[in-house]
Amino acid sequence: MKAKTYILKNVRLETGFEFDGKEVISTNTALFCVEVEEGKIKGIKPNTANANAIDAKGHLMLPAFKDMHAHLDKMLFGLPWEAVSPTRHTVKDMIAYEQKMIPEWLSTSVERTGKMLNFLQAYGTDFIRSHFNVDPTSGLKSLTNLEKALASKKHTVEAELVAFPQHGLYYTDTLPILKDVAKLDAVSFIGGVDPYSLDGSIEKSMEQITQLALDNNKGIDIHLHEMGESGMKTIEFLIDRTLENPQLKGKAFVSHAFALSRLTNVEAEKIAARLAEAGVGIVSSVPFGNMIMPIPTLRKYGVEVLIGNDNIQDHWNTFGSGNMLQKANLIAELYGYGTEFGLSRTLAFATRYKLPLDNNGNQQWPKVGDEASMVFVDASCSAEAVSRISPVTSLIHKGNIVF
Hints:
Elements: E1 6-20, E2 23-37, E3 40-46, E4 54-55, E5 60-63, E6 65-70, H1 91-106, H2 109-122, E7 125-133, H3 141-151, E8 158-164, H4 175-181, E9 187-193, H5 195-199, H6 202-215, E10 219-224, H7 228-244, E11 252-256, H8 265-278, E12 280-284, H9 295-300, E13 305-307, H10 324-335, H11 340-346, H12 348-351, E14 374-377, H13 382-388, E15 392-397, E16 400-401
Parallel strand pairs: 1-4, 6-7, 7-8, 8-9, 9-10, 10-11, 11-12, 12-13
Antiparallel strand pairs: 1-2, 2-3, 5-14, 14-15, 15-16
Helix pairs in contact: 2-3, 6-7, 7-8, 10-13, 11-13
């Protein structure tokens, strides 16, 4: 449904925390009518039995979810089921496979990307940061097809795009293509991947990526799977360049940054302080097993930690659920955020830090004039929604009712 004026009734909103001394023991809610006009929240009023209003059925209204790391252009979603290969282990193995398969994937990618967008929206996501391949095999076709799929859903989803040289800048002859793509208005970030192991030089690749971002007023989002010294040197390089170029502050990110998972507590504190000083963020798919990221330490120092599903059904991995509440739930379980207060704060990872209540329990969202982008879940409060991964019942994007 395209944006217009309407009223929602029986909307459950959080109104404050219930305290036992200084401890939060529960979350208070009440039912309201919410008026929407031209994509904005026009009014929030006491609940009434308005026969003309859309019935939210007492479901909890939360800020719509943001998936901050996706690959909408080259997943296998919409094709027959295929698990990951037992024989492709390295990034270079994957590149060789992609060079073979990309032409076939691109032939159906517009339709399949549309299906993937439907899948993500069904879990309450209305904003996505998506990488798209820039390489000699893809040319500009990955971007072209992705833009077509997004255009068909322009009223119900928003995306920011990362030009991603998956096959290396120099490992394949990608730099000339990336220079052209970097000039396009559709591109918000310049990406990169494992500069040392793939291109043989941290400095050579990172200098090019940084300069392209500066020359074209873009952000940076680097895929960094490398562990140990090369991984940390790449992170330090980006920090240094961002400190030297303040216009990159808040616009420079390291995706994955698995090297951080191997640090001691003291080392993690030190790098977290530097990341925060430079305004360099971390984008994580929340790995676990033998690779626990120091997310609490990063957040303690004020580092922006963004969360995304990354792989949902593709040749790299198949475990991405598409559900940002599930990602928040995983964080809560991994890092012990099991209290009412802790669970309610963990919702921030799904909403890019927009929460109904502030840390003191003061209502801060929604407010009149806010963008009408919200998700409804069958839960009594945000803490329950995170803990139970509550089902999503409706999504509204900028006033447009998606379902």
